[in-house]
Write a structure and sequence with these properties.
CATH superfamily of the largest domain: Periplasmic binding protein-like II
Strand order of the largest sheet: 4-3-5-10-6-11
GO molecular function: DNA binding; DNA-binding transcription factor activity
CATH architecture of the largest domain: 3-Layer(aba) Sandwich
Helix content: 25-40%
Shape: flat
Protein name: DNA-binding transcriptional regulator, LysR family
Strand content: 15-25%
Radius of gyration: 23 Å
Structural class: alpha/beta
Mean pLDDT: 89
CATH class of the largest domain: Alpha Beta
Organism: Micromonospora phaseoli
CATH topology of the largest domain: D-Maltodextrin-Binding Protein, domain 2
Family: Belongs to the LysR transcriptional regulatory family.
Low-confidence stretches: 285-292
Pfam families: HTH_1, LysR_substrate
Distance between the termini: 55 Å
Number of strands: 11
Length: 292
């Protein structure tokens, strides 16, 4: 049997790849941390880490345990959080959404749901790019607005809300901003205006010349300064500055915003919000599909 304590220890070492930093992060001394990892390896009868003078690396088995341990720790945290919320007896839900998401869609979902009898109070939790999945898994959020194909939706139930085209967000004074439409080829190789790079699910970035983007405010400022461009949903037009311009991308894949929740959820409040989302999805297509 694995203990959550030793899994926390192992995850810290696996993420830091350094015993001293992991011990500092955990608030313990290094010797007991090293002994705990060695004991874990003996009980599993596998090598989880390779240690040498240059540092620590994960073995193949170690990578498997890291993935599994994260899921276990998330599930444990979620169980504790949801149990406490259930004991509190409040009719309340937490909805996670990335900052800068379609606020008109969210406003409509919240308003429509609030009009329902005995509707739960919805707390909106703004987060960074790609953080919604982790928040659902560790119980910080009950539901989330996510986007296909960009967000990791595996393991969640979903209800589609909106499908829309993508646009290129450019500095208003750039020559491409005068175009009525663009293609992905048009923006793929513009030396003076590289495309911004968003974090992947693991927090790393694809290699490339564009700046690494951490939040919407940073992106808006860099575009206004003429340092980058971005490819975003058509609804992003709602937060553009006068220093920005938007041009439809005719060959970019469409993006679908979905309401996502854990499939094992038995919350009546979640079920009620999903019913509201289903009602919105069943509205005429022209009111659901955003046009550029």
């Amino acid at each position: 049997m694995l203990e959550t304590r030793e899994l926390r220890y192992f995850v810290a070492v696996a993420e830091e790849l350094h015993f001293s930093r992991a011990a500092e992060r955990l608030g313990i001394a290094q010797p007991p941390l090293s002994r705990a990892i060695q004991q874990l390896e003996r009980r599993l009868d596998v090598a989880l880490l390779e240690r040498n003078r240059r540092g620590v690396t994960l073995t193949g088995a170690g990578q498997v345990l890291l993935d599994e341990a994260r899921a276990i720790l998330d599930a444990t945290a979620a169980a504790a959080r949801r149990t406490r919320r259930a004991a509190a007896g409040t009719n309340r839900l937490t909805l996670a959404t990335k900052a800068g998401a379609n606020h008109k869609l969210l406003r409509k979902l919240l308003d429509t749901h609030a009009a329902e009898p005995d509707a739960a109070e919805i707390e909106v939790l703004l987060c960074g790019m790609g953080e919604q999945a982790r928040m659902l898994r560790d119980g910080r959020a009950d539901v989330a607005l996510m986007q296909r194909p960009f967000d990791a939706l595996a393991g969640f139930d979903t209800e589609e809300l909106l499908t829309e085209q993508q646009v290129a967000i450019l500095p208003a004074g750039h020559p491409l901003a005068a175009r009525t439409s663009l293609t992905m080829a048009d923006i793929s190789n513009v030396p003076d205006l590289p495309v911004a790079r968003w974090p992947r699910q693991d927090g790393s970035y694809e290699p490339g010349p564009g700046p690494e983007i951490h939040d919407q405010s940073q992106l808006a400022q860099l575009i206004a300064l003429g340092r980058t461009m971005a490819v975003l949903c058509a609804s992003s037009r709602s937060w553009l500055w006068n220093a920005h311009a938007a041009a439809p991308l005719t060959d970019a894949p469409h993006v679908t915003t979905v309401l996502a929740w854990p499939p094992h959820s038995r919350s009546r409040a979640v079920a009620a919000l999903v019913r509201t989302a289903t009602q919105l999805q069943q509205e005429p297509t022209k009111t659901r599909n955003a046009q550029p």
